[in-house]
Structure formats: structure tokens, C-alpha cells
């Protein structure tokens, strides 16, 4: 039995990692500031040790890594628009906290840190699919911050022999992604609007594409990265190698939900990339990774979860 630290473990992806780790019988500690995370996301996960604190405080990072074998670093303010509006706060959460964690992990003798990177690092390169060897070209403070933190990871591997792996995420979606936040992923926002009979907003013409990745695929890739023998120091895409436009996404969700509305189109948002698709051959080679859940099945799972959670919340108020 290994001891895992999941930073940001009360958040969307972090809570899914905690769920799977406890299912496997591992020991799990969470550190979360609860700025964007919610304790309710872990209510169904037994025997999780919880530390409430901000990793930008070095003493919190030091306490969090004590006795830990593997760190799954998910904590961040994961929003391009929010970073454009407030780059200082997002820098503190995305870079300062990550550096603190790496120093603390090095000093505590952690076996490996697996870092949640971002496909936003690739920017607007027209080359598809995105390969890890491509030049990076971040378009937003968030994208730059995630890139700097992954470069810190690689530096700590070279300089201090702290094993690190960066997993670059591509538009992850699934249950527990908060649709009440304006910074949530587009799928959770679309589902909530369509279930409520409202018109969701599409920024731009809707023909921009994304490699939407169901959260179970990411969880599998991250946990594989903890133990993969040749992965230390590497940056690895984990996604589906697919491309879906926002217009296609909207049409699929509208059919799935049975709504009869049209989207509202608005001006493109600053810092958003036009197209994104992952080459996942490196993940297959180094991690033995292949997507477990298709895009369509992931959409069905997410809609079912949203409906069930909404019904439960409604019943709780009556």
C-alpha cells in the first residue's frame, strides 16, 4: 500500500483520483484550499486524510508531503478567462504553489510527482495533432503558468533527481465538474443550460475544435504515470486523439437531453486557442495508455450524473 498526496483533491479531477485510489486500497491524503474545490466532492470517498490549506504557503506544502510516496499535483486555478482577468492571483496558485510543492517533495524524499499540465501550452499552432516535441506558444497567463510549472518539474528532475512526470490534459469533462462557475468547462455549462431550457453561449463561430477527454481516461493515465519506469522527466499528452467542434458538441448534447433551443453566439474570448487535438502515441508507448471511455459514452455518463445530482438536490429541499 502506497501513500498518495492529491493536491486539489476536493476539485473535479482530484476527487476522481481520490475515488480510484481508495478503490485500489491505497492511502490518500488531500490538500486543498477550497477556493474552487468542495468538501462535498469527497463525501462519498472513505478514509481520506484532509488538510485545508494553500500550497503557496510553504509550511502547508511541507506538512502535506510528509510521509508521502507519490504526489498527484492537481491544485491550480484552471481557467484561461480568470487568468486574463487576474494574472497575479492565478500566478500565485499555478506557479508559486507548484514551486513550493516541488521543493517540499524533494526535501521529503517523495518517489515521484505527477503534475497536471495543460494542452494550452501548445497555443494556436495549426499543426494537428499536437505532439509533445512541438514548440510551445502560450496565449494566456494560465497557459504560460502551466508551462512554467512543468518546466520547473523537468528542472527538478535534472537538477535534484526528483522524479517528475507532466501529463498534459486536453479539455477534461465528467461528473462533478461545477456548472455553477462561469469558468467551468464548456460541457458542464452546456448541460446545465440545456437541462434548464436555456440557450448556452458559444464564443466565436463554434467551429473551433477540442479533444474532449472523459475524466476516467485522465485518471488512468495519471496513475499509470506514477509507476511507469521510463516516464520520469517526460511531458506526455493524455487525451483521446479526437476532434469535436463546439457546434457538434452542442448538437450532440441537445439530442441527448432532448432540448429545443439554439445557442447564442458571442465574440471569441481572449486567450482561447482555435483547435486542439492530442497525439497520444507517447502515452501508449511509455504508459501503456489507451482511452477507456469514448467521447459519446462520457457525454451520456455526465448528463446522467447531472440529472441525478439535480434531482437529489431538489428532493433535499422539499
Q: Numbering strands along the chain, what is their spatial order in the largest sheet?
A: 3-2-1-4-5-6-11
Average pLDDT works out at: 95
Please report which band the strand proportion falls in: under 5%, 5-15%, 15-25%, 25-35%, 35-45% or over 45%. 15-25%
Tertiary shape: globular
List keywords for this structure.
single chain, 318 residues, alpha/beta, seven-stranded parallel sheet, two-stranded parallel ribbon
Description:
This protein has about 325 residues and is α/β, with parallel strands linked by helices. The protein has ten helices and 13 strands. It has helices spanning about 10-25, 60-65, 80-85, 85-110, 140-160, 185-195, 215-225, 245-255, 280-285, 295-315, and strands at about 5, 25-30, 50, 70-75, 110-120, 165-170, 170-175, 200-205, 210, 215, 235-240, 245, 265. Helix 5 links the parallel strand 5 (about 110-120) and strand 6 (about 165-170). Helix 6 packs parallel to helix 8 (about 245-255) and helix 6 packs across helix 10.
Task: Offer a concise description of the structure.
This protein is α/β, with parallel strands linked by helices and 318 residues long.
Task: Write the SSE topology.
Layout: E1 3-7, H1 12-23, E2 27-32, E3 48-52, H2 58-65, E4 70-73, H3 80-85, H4 87-108, E5 112-118, H5 141-160, E6 163-169, E7 172-173, H6 186-195, E8 201-203, E9 209-210, E10 213-214, H7 215-227, E11 235-238, E12 244-245, H8 246-257, E13 264-266, H9 281-287, H10 295-316
Helix pairs in contact: 1-7, 2-4, 4-5, 6-8, 6-10, 8-10
